[in-house]
Write a structure and sequence with these properties.
The complex is a heterodimer. By secondary structure, chain A is mostly beta strands. Chain A contains no helices and eleven strands. Chain B starts with a strand and ends with a strand.
Chain lengths: 114, 110
């Protein structure tokens, strides 16, 4: 079955702009998590959606937001971009039940803010 | 709050030598522990989870609750083991996010 698909794979924005990233989970997976990956901080949890509801949220400012649609696809948005938002944004999906903590990651969306 | 510490940023070993990647965690409850791996130009993927008690690609990891550790071990390193390894923890409820350590880059020298 198809893996987790993230689009776009690469994007360049300037400070102050906003960006929307998309994630299509594995078919049947209802949970989608987002992580920010940087060389200095590693993987930091942004938020998790399950059945269109935000179930968990990390310690990121309100400029970072997300949503999930009825088909489990998810988007995350970052408004008023800052240089420090440059990172690889990873999406991961998981199934319910005993596999809930087994994440399948996408290839990521690499955001560069100039 | 949960925290995962991987004390080594980089670990270099010779091919055929034993490998131990350290992971310590802080969490007062009953955790679920994982190792994830990212090979060059590949996606981050699950290597093993402690509840499975499996050996994957020759790697094993034992949860030591007394020492709050979950070290990853392999008796004989191979060149293809070179990768970035992340230890991760979740509260054992299936409804909480994974917290990752900052990772250890393993370099196996031929």
């Amino acid at each position: 079955k198809a893996g987790v698909t993230q689009t776009p794979r690469y994007l360049i924005k300037t400070r102050g702009q906003q960006v929307t990233l998309s994630c299509s989970p594995i078919s049947g997976h209802r949970s989608v998590s987002w992580y920010q990956q940087t060389p200095g901080q590693g993987l930091q949890f942004l938020f998790e959606y399950f059945s269109e509801t935000q179930r968990n949220k990390g310690n990121f400012p309100g400029r970072f937001s997300g949503r999930q649609f009825s088909n489990s696809r998810s988007e995350m948005n970052v408004s008023t971009l800052e240089l420090g938002d440059s990172a690889l944004y990873l999406c991961a999906s998981s199934s319910a039940g005993s596999g809930a903590n087994v994440l399948t990651f996408g290839a990521g969306s690499r955001l560069t803010v100039l | 709050a949960q925290r995962v510490t991987q004390p080594e940023k980089l670990l270099s070993v010779f091919k055929g030598a034993p490998v131990e990647l350290k992971c310590n965690y802080s969490y007062s409850g009953s955790p679920e522990l994982f190792w994830y791996v990212q090979y060059s130009r590949q996606r981050l993927q699950l290597l093993l989870r402690h509840i499975s008690r499996e050996s994957i690609k020759g790697f094993t990891a034992d949860l030591n609750k007394g020492e709050t550790s979950f070290h990853l071990k392999k008796p004989f390193a191979q060149e293809e083991d070179s990768a970035m390894y992340y230890c991760a923890l979740s509260r054992n409820s299936g409804n909480t996010p994974l917290v990752f350590g900052k990772g250890t880059r393993l370099s196996v020298i031929a």
